[in-house]
Fold these 4 entries.
Entry 1:
Amino acid sequence: MIRLEMSRHSYFELFLSTFRFIHVHTWIIQLFIFLSGITMALNFKNLQPISEIMLCITGVIFISALFFLDELFKSFTTGMWEQTFKYDLRQHIMMKLLIFGIIDMVIVILLSLMTKSIVSLPLYQILVYVLVPYNIVCIILFSLITIWRKQLHNYFLWCISGSICVAVILIANIFKIYEIRMLYWGIAYFITTTILGIILYSQTKIIKWEVASVW
């Protein structure tokens, strides 16, 4: 009986429960974004600059992340807690972070594999080129959302998210960041990944405290 009770509250059950909370239109949009990214990658040509190809892939990942972000924080934008008697809001958001992170990573890897032969770069280098700007955008967005969590609305979330993504792409294009040595890219990846991990950990602690204060 104890083993059966534990299995009913397993991480796999939480994974399935969280999937049921994610609206179907989110997956339809992500499928459309993924297919658009594949179409774009197939149309890349060897004569295109590496920076242009990297920015296109990064833009696709940014768009995917924006729709995931909207789904991730819909409890705050709608003002309704997304939880069940078995799992609370913090657990659902942590599992959503895992699910969305896996999906985005799959998109990044597949698009990188498709462009690897075109840009003639190692796979790890393409991944770092994409993931460093992605980490920076996530750090900025999660930090701002933490500050304005109580006043968070859909239009504000989309405006600030879109502006930050466009700004990062413009800065990357203006300063020719893809000409920087790979050593500095590796350092930037390590630093941004560490900072992002710390922010996500603090986010889950804040959400746990807010849910507890409500109840």
Entry 2:
Amino acid sequence: MQWFYICLATLLSAFCYRIGGMSKESAKLHFPWFPQIFVKSWFRDANCTLITLGYLLLFVPTVSWYWYVLAVAGSYFGLTTYW
């Protein structure tokens, strides 16, 4: 069952990453049903990080709090500084 949740988190994160990286014109063409206010890079950065944190909180055995902070910081900074 955990594989299902890994796949679900991966698909949600991939969708957020794709929407956040699109231009408004491309988003209107490919995803006309999706609200245009979310076609911004902050949508990608915030939601991919939150999906990662949610998965860690649900399925990783309890660890010290600073490991969660490091995981969130690594995910967020990895998404925002990839250039």
Entry 3:
Amino acid sequence: MTRLVVAGCSVSDYTEVDKPWGEYLSEKLSCEYLHLAGASGSNYRMWRLLVSHVVDNKITADDTVIVQYTTPERNEFWSPRPLEQLGGAGENYHGESGGSLVKIKHNTYTHMDGKEHKFAKLWRNFINPEFEIEKFRVNHIMFQCLMKEYGITKLYFIQAGPYGSSLGELQLLESYKNNNIICRDIFKVETCLPNDLSHLNDNGHRTLADIVAARL
């Protein structure tokens, strides 16, 4: 059976809602749903998970893959401390390879302690917006080339509000030239969580699902 695969950050995750837009969209398409979005997720995390799934044949040419890009500076790093020492799994931590994977963005350090706190706080001083955009452009092109090589023809990208606008106009291969969905105005009072204009409420997720469905 064909599946819908969605990779993204908290915009596409179960952030204070029972269903994200990807799940609503899969219901519209009457297909299975594979959720690869995660709070505080980075574009690198999306590429890492999707490429791993494709290479391992967990995502095939029959599937529809949608990437909801986020801000370019986000990343992830490995820590030798196990989850138990970091307070358990949560928005920023996941068990990995004898330690933990730590998702990092501009304010991550405020939720950490120990060496992870020091690293995340210091990391902010080594971010250059222009360089991060350059890295994004290179990885975005390489990602498309790999997906094309594996026959993933139904590949789409979403730039939602401020999360995607900082990336500029996406460079798309001929195979995907019409597959960028720009939703600059998705974050409104009626579509967002109370007192949070950066995350969608149930109405917002349903609205985004309708917008994407019309483009597939």
Entry 4:
Amino acid sequence: MAFPLINKQTLSTTASPAAVWRAFTRVDLWPQVLPSVITARLEPAEAFAGGSRILTRATPGSGAADLEYRIVAAEAPRRLVLEIEDTDYRATTEYVIADAPDAAGMTDVAVTSRLEAHGLSQIWRFLVWRERLTPILSASARQRGQAFLDLAERIGEAG
């Protein structure tokens, strides 16, 4: 079967692994690097852990939707898994941060995105639109991942 759709890519940054982790946990700063997000908050506050939620409000006119992310796994400072559950689909993104920068001083972050349709009608719709969905999934994962890396570079380890 064609689903789930899975996209894997590796992004690199000059930020340290600790700074990358810090960028993920500083939910309040996400709107600085995610143009479609006007606010983001963690619930419960100060509990960046499995089972917590991240609530984002979309920037008016951006065409984006308000989203609720569930933190599936938060294994500091190496692995984060976020999930969006919708009536039509489930989107899961896993970020795995390298233990240390490479010889060139770059930190690699492996990003795996997974999109699963709910129900027969959505599976059919996804199959018909697979050619369009695959590049959208890849581009979305790259843009969001790169935004977090830009934030890591900006805030550094002290953030």
